[in-house]
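--- STAGE predict ---
source: upstream dedup step, 1 unique chain passed
mode: sequence only
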Amino acid sequence: MKKKLLIFLSSICVITVLLFGVISFMMNQGYGISRGKYLEAKNGQPMMILNNSPIQLSDRKKLISFEKLSNGDEIFVIHDAIEESYPGRTGVHAVFKLGDGSADDIPREVISSLIELGWLESEF
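--- STAGE serialize ---
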């Protein structure tokens, strides 16, 4: 029994070290990892709300489907550096849905700002 427990714990340690290694490598190469809320602009442009800031997402691999995401869904994104503009922009390498959400989960000040800029319809 002790041998099985030791093998299990060793496996967890190896997986953890590999995961941290991959994340460190990605960050050293200029990739970012973020968790935010999904939002689709009126022109179909996918966006992520990160710390109350909207960021345009563009598919770097031409393989990512944003169709299964709804406004307010919690997402995990692996991306390039974020360009400092308003809204920000970044290339996306992978998107993972972490949980369901709704448009009510997105701060009103962000919605108001995007409506003012023409990114969202006024009846959002």
